[in-house]
């Protein structure tokens, strides 16, 4: 049998060998012996605690150390001292600092009552006191190391230097009395003074919140000698316990009284203020959220919701006053540890001098020398920070005292709530299922497709049937959102295919849901012909039907607008609708073509089959259900591309090792290269033309407009075609860019005799040949039957005959479908890669292998792909492949080539765009001359109104029209000779809205100015002008709209990429015409516009308003917060409706309301609830729409329709939601006047 001594020796051996686990096992066995003495148990526990310490089992160390302290009576013993050290150390390692402070305080209390070990006592008290009072984690660590390193069981060799100011309660000393006063305001000191520690107590501690005269005996204990509540009872269990409770309270009062006598305790500013508040006869007037003479603002809302458990938030208060700030304090104790005053900055408005105030306490700041009299205007910036690691609702009140009453108070509230992924998935699936059940698809309906002898079917029916069968519209039986797609936000090699499939389905459903907002049950008016008056600048136009077809007009019940997502989809992506009679019982649904679109009207072409089967007649009405349809072909092709991609290593390259691009003098100074190439352009050509035996990831060619991306890729192609084995696939996002390569580069090379440069241009088969430039037609496959010409789809043999194939990303699907083998193209060059969705960009990459050289060129700061699903946006579906790789590649990286040299813009324009959009990376290579009068950045002020025609979806601003035309005329009359001839490339007028384009063109024609280009910004990519005039159109005159702000676009006011695209079209002058107040105060571009206007002000090119006047108006808007931009509000409000009374506003349940403070305990400042202030709502009642004129045309049989601008017919409507809730129809609807078609 193994003896105890043997086990002890073995355990000691294990300790020396650092075999901690086996040593713990032996000590466990030794501790099981019931015959152990007290000293042996303490020794075993001490040794076992050392083993636990080495194995990082801190909780076990805490348990053993507490056991040692409880067992051993000699508190000066080495084992007890070591146990206290370990206890404090483990609490700190576990970040349980309050328990560490309590342990150190208990040790300090023992020292005060003990007379032993007087040599070490002063040092020990000093070290422990400093540890308890440390609030900074670094200082805490230093004090902890002193505790662990000091030997407190031997004679001290050092003495504590006597100082003048000492806190006898916390055993800390200071050389300055001010430092001692600051210490006395700390929570640790207050806790020490107000606690009943320092004496030995024998009974339960008294209940909190009671006074000595409110302690009572427990009735149950008095009657029966027993209490079921036990330790939780607030009544005293006996006379002796009651007496001790009262003694404890008197002891605490005595400690506080003595501390006050020694000037070691005094009320803080917060306590004094709360005392004053509680004793005030009118407390509601002591602290107000607005006071006279103080202008204040906050950087963020006072109440906020945070969806992260480990959260932080910050408020920045800006206060302007003529009185000095006396104090800033946080009032509520309940959540004091979550709120902090982080900084206070002072700025004198007279001389703009500023300084930062020193904060000794992060809960309140007091300025003892504050003057109560008038002071020069001063601006204070106060930052309040919130941090938390738990869920809950946290409230705090911050006061700003300017030395007089009332005092400014602001109430803060933070809700930290969980963001449940499962709840989101469930809710999203519900929305998806609802969307699916409401749609007519081939899955649930018999759809009769539109067919006409006059209009060819724009879709390849065979190809469409294949795609639709492979990728049907998602419904509840086939689509389930995975948790990985819901929870993650990054694409990886492993999740790419499934994740992209799901996000594409989500985006498709989101688009359908947006379009479905215009699905209605309405009266469809049928006619043989109709007349349009699209806008006030064009003449009326008539359209006629033939071949048994009819036209139909429907009223949408709401306005179409280019600014809303749903309006944009209807206007740009909807070509057809499904309809059926409202009382139909079967599943048969008919397809109709959309002929024209108006502000709230849509004109349809109904097929002869639908007319015949439904018995429709001209000049009649029929109630129908309407559903707008989007083209599903692109989405199905993207799904098809994803499944054709063999692996995704190409688009997820390894970047931890930078690839090496071989260099040689012969390649660097190749005589065949164009001399106009700069160093970075040559670097790009060297990378792309690197031998294919050298594996490289996709090469990124990044550059703003005018840096020579197209020129560089063209010169790369010229170099590549010298190698007989190379085959090049050139892809662009737009047809115009693809044609530009042929007209500007490939065709001239072919004419010069370079036959290898002869490309094959693949076009969409149903595009009209006449719309393609004759030069480009030479390189297309065109079929002609004598009367009509059409594009042919190429064969593999056609592609094999050419070294260069030019396609768009969308038409590259034809190359995949024809069965070209992977690796057929040695080089795949993609231009405009930043404008396409990633799934669109990888379409040509399905034909690539690891040996294929891939290059992506584009500008990630200009117009990019549009995604309508917020869910998909959050998961980066809107990020192009070029932008994702740009962020993934390290910097610098040999395959990420930035072209910084701009060859087109004036240095002032380039400096502005470089600083605003391109991180200061661009510079001007070629010096451009400026106008003698106007600085290259110029602003002309207008204060007009943005309005809509009754039959239009866009906006116009007549004031800007006149200003633009006047400035164009001025520039034309004073056109500098050194700018070259005045032609269509001289001045480009750019605006976001079609109606503004029409009006500017019309006004210029009146002045006989025909050589000025006026375009929407979406149509100017790839173009350049000597002068660009921007008409921003929008103002702050419009009113609040029901659509969420995030879903509404304001053109140049909200879209940075749109604005960048417009500005970078200019060579020498950017002249902006607009409302500076709206530009600087509305939308995501407000800061950019403010910088633009400040630049104009600094260079004397701000016209129509001074910066001081603009600044004054902006300050007024920030303070009043009255007007909000609404792009859909009518431009006219009848007088009788202007004073319409708004309906009651629903108050948010989370908004707090003010309750009076309780008086019993001045230490407790309870949670406040604050009132929400409802905003006034202005209701705009539209005037009745006038009827359209009836036209009686001569009979014209079998005439194809002419595609002309749109118009509107306002019949009565009833939306599907109104039919479900018939009571809503009792409300007053807009009055629409019907008319009969001839």
UniProtKB/TrEMBL annotation:
Region (Disordered): 1200-1238
Source taxon at top rank: Eukaryota
Originating species: Exocentrus adspersus
GO cellular component: cytosol; P granule
UniProt xrefs under Pfam families: AAA_11, AAA_12
Domain called C2H2-type: residue spans: 167-189
Name of the protein: C2H2-type domain-containing protein
GO biological process: regulatory ncRNA-mediated post-transcriptional gene silencing
Molecular function in Gene Ontology: helicase activity
InterPro entries given in the database record: DNA2/NAM7-like, DNA2/NAM7-like_C, DNA2/NAM7_AAA_11, P-loop_NTPase, SF1_C_Upf1, TPR-like_helical_dom_sf, Znf_C2H2_type
PROSITE patterns listed in its UniProt record: ZINC_FINGER_C2H2_1
């Amino acid at each position: 049998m193994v003896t105890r001594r043997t086990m002890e020796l073995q355990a000691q051996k294990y300790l020396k060998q650092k075999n901690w686990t086996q040593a713990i096992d032996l000590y466990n066995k030794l501790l099981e012996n019931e015959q152990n003495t007290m000293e042996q148990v303490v020794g075993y526990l001490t040794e076992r605690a050392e083993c636990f310490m080495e194995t990082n089992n801190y909780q076990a160390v805490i348990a053993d150390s507490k056991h040692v302290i409880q067992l051993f009576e000699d508190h000066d013993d080495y084992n007890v001292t070591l146990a206290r050290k370990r206890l404090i150390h483990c609490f700190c390692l576990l970040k349980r600092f309050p328990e560490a402070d309590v342990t150190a305080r208990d040790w300090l209390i023992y020292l005060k009552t003990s007379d032993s070990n007087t040599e070490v006592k002063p040092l020990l008290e000093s070290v422990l006191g400093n540890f308890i009072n440390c609030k900074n984690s670094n200082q805490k660590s230093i004090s902890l190391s002193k505790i662990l390193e000091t030997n407190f069981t031997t004679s001290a060799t050092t003495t504590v230097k006597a100082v003048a100011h000492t806190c006898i309660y916390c055993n800390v000393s200071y050389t300055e009395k001010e430092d001692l006063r600051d210490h006395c305001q700390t929570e640790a000191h207050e806790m020490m003074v107000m606690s009943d520690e320092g004496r030995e107590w024998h009974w339960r501690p008294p209940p909190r919140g009671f006074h000595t005269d409110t302690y009572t005996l427990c009735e149950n204990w008095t009657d029966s000698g027993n209490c079921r509540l036990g330790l939780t009872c607030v009544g005293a269990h006996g006379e002796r316990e009651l007496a001790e409770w009262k003694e404890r309270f008197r002891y605490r009062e005595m400690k506080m009284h003595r501390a006050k006598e020694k000037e070691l305790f005094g009320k803080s500013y917060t306590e004094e203020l709360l005392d004053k508040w509680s004793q005030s006869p009118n407390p509601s007037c002591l602290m107000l959220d607005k006071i006279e003479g103080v202008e204040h603002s906050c950087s963020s809302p006072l109440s906020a919701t945070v969806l992260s458990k480990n959260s932080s938030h910050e408020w920045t208060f800006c206060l302007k006053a003529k009185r000095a700030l006396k104090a800033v304090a946080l009032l509520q104790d309940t959540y004091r540890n979550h709120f902090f005053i982080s900084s206070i900055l002072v700025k004198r408005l007279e001389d703009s001098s500023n300084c930062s105030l020193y904060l000794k306490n992060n809960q309140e700041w007091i300025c003892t020398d504050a003057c109560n009299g008038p002071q020069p205007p001063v601006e204070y910036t106060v930052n309040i920070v919130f941090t938390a690691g738990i869920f809950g609702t946290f409230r705090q009140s911050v006061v700003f005292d300017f030395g007089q009453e009332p005092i400014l108070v602001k109430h803060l509230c933070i809700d930290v709530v969980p963001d449940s992924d499962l709840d989101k998935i469930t809710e999203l699936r519900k929305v998806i299922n609802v969307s699916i059940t409401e749609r007519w698809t081939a899955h649930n309906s018999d759809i009769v497709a539109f067919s006409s002898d006059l209009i060819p079917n724009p879709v390849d029916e065979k190809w469409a049937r294949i795609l639709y069968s492979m990728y049907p519209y998602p419904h509840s039986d086939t689509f389930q959102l995975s948790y990985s797609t819901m929870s993650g936000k990054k694409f990886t090699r492993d999740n790419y295919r499934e994740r992209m499939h799901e996000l594409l389905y989500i985006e498709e459903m989101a688009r359908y849901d947006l379009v479905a907002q215009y699905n209605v049950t309405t009266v469809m008016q049928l006619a043989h012909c109709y007349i349009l008056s699209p806008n006030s600048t064009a003449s009326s136009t008539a359209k006629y039907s033939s071949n048994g077809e009819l036209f139909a007009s429907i009223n949408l019940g709401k306005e179409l607008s280019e600014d809303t997502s749903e309006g944009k989809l209807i206007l740009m992506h909807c070509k057809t609708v499904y309809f059926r009679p409202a009382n139909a019982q079967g599943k048969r649904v008919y397809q109709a073509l959309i002929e024209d679109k108006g502000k709230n009207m849509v004109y349809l072409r109904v097929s002869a089959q639908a007319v015949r089967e439904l018995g429709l007649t001209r000049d009649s009405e029929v109630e129908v259900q309407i559903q707008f349809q989007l083209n599903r072909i692109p989405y199905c092709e993207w799904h098809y591309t994803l499944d054709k991609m063999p692996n995704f290593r190409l688009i997820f390259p390894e970047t931890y090792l930078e690839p090496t691009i071989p260099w040689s003098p012969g390649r660097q100074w190749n005589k065949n290269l164009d001399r106009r190439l700069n160093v970075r352009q040559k670097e790009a050509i060297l990378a792309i033309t690197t031998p294919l035996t050298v594996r490289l990831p996709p090469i990124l060619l990044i550059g703003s407009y005018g840096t020579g991306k197209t020129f560089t890729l063209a010169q790369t192609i010229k170099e590549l075609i010298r190698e007989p084995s190379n085959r090049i696939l050139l892809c662009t996002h737009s047809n115009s860019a693809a044609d530009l390569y042929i007209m500007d580069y490939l065709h001239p090379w072919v004419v010069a005799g370079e036959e290898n440069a002869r490309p094959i241009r693949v076009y969409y088969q149903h595009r009209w040949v006449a719309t393609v430039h004759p030069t480009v037609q030479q390189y297309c496959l065109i079929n002609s039957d004598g009367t009509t010409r059409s594009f042919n789809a190429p064969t593999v043999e056609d592609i094999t005959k050419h070294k260069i194939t030019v396609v768009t990303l969308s038409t590259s699907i034809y190359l995949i479908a024809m069965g070209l083998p992977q690796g057929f193209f040695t080089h795949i060059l993609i231009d405009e890669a930043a404008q396409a969705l990633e799934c669109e960009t990888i379409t040509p990459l399905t034909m690539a292998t690891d040996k294929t050289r891939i290059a992506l060129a584009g500008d990630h700061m200009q117009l990019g792909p549009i995604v309508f699903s917020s869910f998909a946006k959050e998961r980066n579906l809107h990020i192009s492949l070029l932008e994702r790789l740009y962020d993934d590649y390290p910097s610098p990286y040999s395959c990420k080539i930035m072209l910084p040299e701009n060859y087109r813009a004036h240095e002032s324009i380039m400096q502005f765009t470089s600083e605003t959009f391109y991180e200061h990376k661009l510079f001007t290579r070629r010096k451009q001359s400026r106008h003698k009068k106007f600085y290259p950045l110029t602003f002309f002020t207008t204060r007009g109104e943005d309005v809509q025609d009754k039959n239009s979806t866009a906006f116009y601003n007549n004031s800007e029209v006149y200003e633009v035309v006047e400035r164009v005329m001025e520039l034309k009359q004073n056109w500098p000779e050194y700018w070259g001839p005045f032609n269509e490339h001289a001045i480009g007028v750019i605006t976001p809205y079609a109606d503004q384009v029409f009006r500017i063109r019309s006004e210029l024609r009146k002045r006989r100015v025909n050589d000025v280009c006026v375009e929407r910004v979406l149509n100017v990519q790839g173009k350049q002008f000597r002068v660009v005039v921007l008409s921003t159109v929008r103002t702050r005159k419009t009113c609040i709209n029901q659509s969420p702000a995030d879903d509404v676009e304001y053109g140049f006011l909200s879209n940075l990429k749109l604005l960048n695209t417009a500005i970078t079209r200019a060579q020498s002058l950017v002249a902006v015409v607009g409302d500076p107040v709206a530009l600087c105060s509305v939308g995501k571009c407000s800061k950019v516009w403010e910088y633009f206007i400040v630049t104009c002000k600094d260079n004397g090119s701000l016209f129509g308003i001074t910066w001081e006047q603009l600044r004054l108006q902006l300050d007024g808007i920030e303070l009043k917060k009255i007007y909000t931009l609404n792009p859909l509000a009518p431009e006219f409000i009848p007088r009788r409706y202007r004073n319409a009374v708004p309906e009651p506003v629903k108050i948010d349940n989370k908004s707090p309301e003010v309750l009076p403070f309780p008086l019993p305990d001045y230490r407790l400042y309870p949670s406040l609830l604050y009132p929400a202030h409802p905003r006034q709502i202005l209701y705009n009642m539209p005037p009745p729409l006038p009827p359209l004129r009836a036209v009686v045309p001569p009979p014209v049989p079998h005439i194809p329709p002419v595609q002309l601008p749109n118009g509107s017919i306002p019949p009565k409507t009833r939306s599907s939601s109104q039919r479900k809730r018939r009571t809503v129809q009792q409300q007053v609807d807009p009055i629409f006047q019907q008319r009969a078609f001839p």
